[in-house]
Specification:
Layout: H1 29-43, H2 48-59, H3 78-87, H4 94-104, H5 117-128, H6 138-169, H7 172-184, H8 189-192, H9 197-212, H10 216-227, H11 237-251, H12 257-290, H13 301-310, H14 330-337, H15 352-375, H16 377-381, H17 391-396, H18 407-423
Length: 428
């Protein structure tokens, strides 16, 4: 026996096919180009997309709901009216919050339900339109930023998902189909409208791809940026923890266990700190605005009048009750009081249509979970961290959806399904 021969690693994660990240991340360049072209045609066509949404926005009356609708303070010219007619459909519902925050800042208490990452991106976009300020008011610049930036973020998200699929599935065709379904999803309306979904998807898919390449620091930074865009980015800490625990168990056979354990604890603490920092800073900013005297901003009279008419709380009013909590989190208070988010609160007879709307995704995730668990019971029992007892069985199905690397992504999907189904507005 050759003493220089490398010992065979029979661990679970060595069972995936030979894969060179530098050369074989995705052999199908044509399919990647197809994803880009399809994404462009679906979400960023400046002519057809604007005309279609303007046409349907004109012929279909808006639903008169008690949604946030602040007054327009800036004067509106002919060009502004044209922009509003073409792109105004992108500013409905929650998009009004993001546009308002980008234009006026966080003035009302319930605005703090929307994280600052996307409004900051819109402000950067409006700065690029500064030469047009003579023709366009601030809102028109923001609408153009929404249309252009979300088109760009949607394209980048589709490409990042295709790249991630190649890394995880080791099957370029399935990775292509995953990106294709992402582009064709009916939920793409949220990627085109003035919502933060497109930016969040791009950052999250990119951070997952970096983690699959072993670039933990870059991945953690991107995950932290995603948390600054949406609060559910905090859930992504599970990917970092699983990767660190997997590395810990893999290194036990060659390294000092005690040293590796302390290294694991330090990595876990750093991951929690990195991903929670944007959330913590945002909560602290809200605390300074509403709970500390002398920090309130001046608010224009029409916006003050809106707060009085609608019952919105501003910083100059009475101190809100969450300021006296042991852990004063405005986000938890807003979700509870303004959006009625809580355990089983959405389980009402009038919400049955929304449960039916969410049923296809719930059934798909449940079916995928059952298929994966029944195929890899040992993998699921050991959370993908221990060596497999029957490596031959796993080798036969190590490509595509049944790849061992899919495990942590499936856990992520199941966690979101359970939390969303029990505690959130189910159609979201």
């Amino acid at each position: 026996m050759d003493r220089h021969r490398r010992p065979v690693d029979t661990s679970l994660w060595s069972l995936r096919p030979e894969f060179d990240p530098g050369k074989e991340e995705c052999k199908s360049g044509h399919e990647a180009e197809t994803v880009v072209l399809l994404s462009i045609s679906l979400v960023s066509s400046p002519g057809d997309g604007a005309l279609c949404q303007a046409f349907f926005n004109a012929i279909i009356p808006d639903h008169h709901a008690e949604a946030f609708s602040p007054p327009r303070l800036a004067p509106s010219g002919c060009v502004d009216q044209l922009v509003e007619g073409l792109l105004g459909g992108l500013s409905r519902w929650d998009a009004e919050h993001f546009l308002f925050i980008a234009e006026h800042g966080y003035l009302y208490e319930h605005n703090f339900a929307f994280f600052p990452g996307f409004p900051l991106a819109l402000l950067v976009g409006t700065e690029l339109l500064r030469p047009l300020r003579g023709l366009l008011n601030q809102r028109s610049c923001l609408l153009i930023s929404v249309a252009s930036l979300n088109s760009l973020f949607s394209i980048l998200a589709a490409v990042a998902l295709h790249d991630l699929g190649c890394l995880v599935l080791h099957c370029p065709r399935q990775a292509f189909y995953a990106a294709l379904l992402f582009c064709l999803s009916p939920a793409n309306v949220f990627l085109a409208a003035g919502y933060s979904e497109a930016l969040f998807a791009f950052l999250t898919f990119s951070s997952m791809g970096q983690l699959e390449r072993g670039r933990g620091w870059i991945s953690g930074l991107l995950f932290a940026l995603a948390t600054g865009v949406r609060s559910n980015g905090l859930v992504s800490v599970g990917f970092l923890l699983h990767s660190q625990c997997r590395g810990f168990f893999s290194s036990l056979v060659v390294s000092n266990p005690l040293r590796q354990f302390f290294k694991l604890v330090a990595s876990v603490c750093l991951s929690f700190l990195t991903l929670s920092l944007p959330f913590a800073l945002f909560q602290y900013y809200a605390y300074t605005q509403f709970c500390l005297s002398g920090s309130a901003r001046s608010i224009r009279e029409p916006l003050v009048q809106l707060a009085m008419d609608k019952g919105y709380r501003i910083a100059e009013g009475n101190e809100p009750p969450w300021c006296s909590w042991d852990l004063p989190l405005i986000y938890s208070y807003i979700q509870d009081v303004y959006w009625n988010v809580g355990f089983l609160r959405y389980y009402e007879f009038k919400q049955v249509p929304n449960f039916l709307l969410a049923a296809p995704v719930a059934i798909l995730v449940s079916w995928a979970t059952w298929t994966y668990v029944t195929t890899h019971p040992w993998l699921c029992l050991t959370l993908g961290l221990r060596r497999n007892k029957n490596s031959k069985t796993l080798e036969k199905s190590s490509l595509g959806f049944l790849s061992p690397q899919v495990f942590v992504y499936l856990v992520h999907a199941v966690s979101l399904l359970l939390f969303g189904g029990l505690c959130m507005h189910i159609q979201m």
